[in-house]
């Protein structure tokens, strides 16, 4: 984040907000600042923000996007193999979650089941256990 802060002018509120926001809320603001830097033609500022984006997203599941950022920041054609491994790990985790939730996902696509769900969470759980377990 220091790269991003260094690129921003003193009147920008982003450094004050950043400590209060999660990454997924902060990222669009950083994207906006990157666009402003590019539009103004300030290459150094845009580069600092790009480097900050890479650091911000480094340990997320956005492996493909982070690999592209890495290639852009370091001006290389290939990202390190760790990004491909991370991508495979993320896909494996996604497939695992899809398998674990397949039954409830299928139930929620059925109109008869969705029509019987209520705003009461406890009643919904009991209904699903009783009629669809």
Q: Residue-averaged pLDDT, rounded?
A: 87
Task: State the separation between the terminal residues, measured CA to CA.
Answer: 48 Å
C-alpha geometry: elongated
Provide the succession of SSEs.
HHHHHHHHH
Number of helices: 9
* Computed structural class: mainly alpha
- Tally the beta strands: 0
What proportion strand?
A: under 5%
Share of helix, binned = over 70%
Biggest sheet, in brief? none
Unreliable stretches covering 5 or more consecutive residues = none
The radius of gyration is 22 Å
Short description:
By secondary structure, the protein is mainly α.
Description:
By secondary structure, the protein is mainly alpha-helical. The protein has a domain of 57 residues. Helix content is 75%, strand content 0%. It has nine helices and no strands. Helix 4 packs antiparallel against helix 5. It is elongated. The mean pLDDT is 87. This is Eukaryotic translation initiation factor 3 subunit E N-terminal domain-containing protein. It comes from Verticillium longisporum.
Task: Based on the model shown, name its key terms.
133 residues; mainly alpha; 9 helices; 75% helix; 0% strand; translation initiation factor activity
Tell me the layout of helices and strands.
Elements: H1 2-7, H2 14-18, H3 23-40, H4 43-57, H5 63-74, H6 81-100, H7 102-107, H8 111-116, H9 121-132
Helix pairs in contact: 3-4, 4-5, 5-6
């Amino acid at each position: 984040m220091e790269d991003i802060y260094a690129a921003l002018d003193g009147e920008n509120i982003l450094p004050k907000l950043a400590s209060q926001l999660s990454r997924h809320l902060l990222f669009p603001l950083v994207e906006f600042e990157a666009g402003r830097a590019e539009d103004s033609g300030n290459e150094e500022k845009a580069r600092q923000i790009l480097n900050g984006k890479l650091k911000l997203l480094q340990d997320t599941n956005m492996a493909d996007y982070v690999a592209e950022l890495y290639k852009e920041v370091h001006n290389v054609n290939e990202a390190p193999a760790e990004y491909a491994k991370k991508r495979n790990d993320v896909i494996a985790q996604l497939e695992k979650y899809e398998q674990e939730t397949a039954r409830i996902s299928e139930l929620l696509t059925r109109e008869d089941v969705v029509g019987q769900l209520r705003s009461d969470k406890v009643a919904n759980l009991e209904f699903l256990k009783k009629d669809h377990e």
